[in-house]
Amino acid sequence: MPFSHHSHSGEFCPSHAQNTLDQVIQAAIEQGMEVFCLSEHMPRSEGDLYEEEIQAGVTSASLVSNEARYFMTAVQLREKYASQIKILIGFESEWIQGSVSLKLISDSLSRYPFEFFVGSVHHLHGVPIDWSRALYSKAREVSGGTDERAFEDYFDVHYEMLQNLRPPIVGHFDLIRLYCDDPNLSSGGLQKWAGVWQRVKRNLKYISIYGGLLELNSAALRKGLEMPYPAGEICQEFLSMDGRFCLSDDSHGVAQVGAKYHEMFKYVQEQGIQNLYFLDLAPAGTTEGLDPRFPRTLVKCRSLAEVKEMEFWKR
Question: Where does the signal sequence lie (predicted)?
Answer without folding.
Answer: none
